[in-house]
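task queued by scheduler; priority normal; single chain, no ligands, no partner chains; default sampling; output format set to structure tokens
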Amino acid sequence: MLLTIDVGNTHTVLGLFDGEDIVEHWRISTDARRTADELAVLLQGLMGMHPLLGDELGDGIDGIAICATVPSVLHELREVTRRYYGDVPAVLVEPGVKTGVPILTDNPKEVGADRIINAVAAVDLFGGPAIVVDFGTATTFDAVSARGEYVGGVIAPGIEISVEALGVKGAQLRKIEVARPRSVIGKNTVEAMQSGIVYGFAGQVDGVVNRMARELADDPDDVTVIATGGLAPMVLGESSVIDEHEPWLTLIGLRLVYERNVSRL
């Protein structure tokens, strides 16, 4: 089985693939202070509960693919693969790793690995042109051309960041649960904030995607818009531009990149 690990700024998502099928997944908090040994114990605890894997760390794992937006965590995971999975082929997505997606930006090295991985999966699943909207710590919009090239994107504050900012900076406001309110017009402060978050972000997505699609293709209707990320379900029902929802887009992209590189290891 293939273990895929997507390290984001707030959460880390792990997926277990049996061939092309994802058979298990976990979501944990990202902690830049965790050491390689702590991460190994955490992995053993999670995977030890799966009936298809053995009790010992590494039993049943044939390959590992990792991408990370937090350099310190990537460093520790590299040590995990060396010390605890020494005989298992591992692909860590970084400059020099073959993805199959040309990066047409001013400085390709500054584009987050997860965004490139999302583009890889989008091209494979839906073709181009496409726009991937990833609802994470930041809300990112990534454009893929009809030829499968990563051409650039947009970065905006994420939903959770915005909620926290309102709670910190608003003298009479507080942190709230991110949930869909009863109506757009809030009847109390909490509902008013929830409405601003849910419908405000839906409007942001529609506006940004429509502008990107006009630049990306002669006919904007040819552009497939894919939503992913843990908070995507909050906006899916309110956005008018999202065509597809693939919660495991990054994990699928990691599987594809692993398959393209494992023969070179």
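post-processing summary
- Residues 189-216 form the longest helix (28 residues).
- The radius of gyration is 19 Å.
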